[in-house]
């Protein structure tokens, strides 16, 4: 019980301080407030805007092998593009007056999910945003038709081979893959739909999340840590507080990793839980 009381006090202090600061007001130099990046409300300048500080993509490893893997510029650029498609605000440029934690889950073979935890004086709300297709610019009807044509031909060929009992198992697998690609192409020509669901969290749940951040040494973690993995999922977690901002990205972190547990905790509380 003695350990919980300080955490409650800290949370209350964070929210109280946040209520005393208007959106866009300086936070001890933590936020650059650069109008070339976003408005004070967090609206990005354009689709090419980086949502993260340039320093976040630097690979700080002293290991020679890890250094040869380069930095995380491409990964953070991809995350910025997704956040823009989600119409999310830039959290690293201006302080919004209260604490916000945002988790972008970007699996290799699933649609991305965006979770945003808003901590205000009155309540804590976890917003889940899902999309009906991969969030990229909508393709024209002509593009969809042109890209669909070879896939349809391939599908018909595979169906014919299966009908004549030629390499049935292999061709069924190829057919499933071709059908999946065709669905993807067709969806690219439909409007992007972002659905939102909100869940109000209890004080206990917020305390658990803050404890997980502390246990993971979140504020001391390097933002960039390249890996050799080819697929899997990207986990990007941002923390937006009065005195500090932090982003950490990992590619398929271990389930024993404290950072993974922070992200999983939010995901388990959302409707997007796998």
UniProtKB/TrEMBL annotation:
It comes from the Bacteria. This is Lipoprotein.
């Amino acid at each position: 019980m003695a350990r919980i009381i300080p955490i409650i006090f800290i949370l209350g202090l964070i929210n109280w301080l946040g209520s005393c600061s208007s959106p866009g007001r300086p936070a001890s130099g933590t936020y650059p407030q650069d109008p070339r990046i976003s408005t004070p409300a967090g609206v990005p300048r354009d689709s090419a805007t980086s949502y993260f500080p340039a320093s976040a993509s630097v690979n700080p490893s002293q290991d020679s092998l890890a250094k040869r893997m380069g930095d995380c510029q491409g990964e953070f650029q991809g995350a910025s593009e997704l956040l823009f498609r989600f119409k999310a605000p830039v959290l690293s440029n201006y302080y919004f007056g209260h604490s916000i934690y945002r988790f972008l889950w970007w699996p290799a073979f699933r649609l991305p999910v965006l979770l945003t935890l808003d901590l205000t004086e009155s309540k804590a709300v976890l917003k889940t945003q899902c999309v009906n297709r991969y969030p990229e610019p909508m393709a024209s009807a002509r593009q969809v038709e042109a890209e669909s044509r070879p896939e349809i031909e391939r599908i018909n060929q595979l169906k014919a081979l299966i009908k004549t009992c030629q390499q049935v198992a292999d061709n069924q697998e190829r057919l499933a893959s071709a059908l999946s690609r065709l669905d993807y192409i067709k969806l690219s020509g439909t409007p992007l739909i972002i659905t939102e669901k909100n869940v109000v969290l209890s004080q206990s749940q917020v305390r658990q999340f803050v404890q997980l951040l502390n246990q993971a040494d979140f504020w001391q973690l390097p933002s960039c840590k390249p890996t050799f993995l080819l697929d899997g999922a990207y986990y990007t977690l941002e923390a937006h507080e009065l005195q500090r901002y932090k982003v950490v990205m990992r590619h398929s972190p271990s389930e024993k990793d404290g950072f993974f547990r922070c992200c999983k905790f939010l995901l388990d509380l959302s409707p997007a839980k796998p």
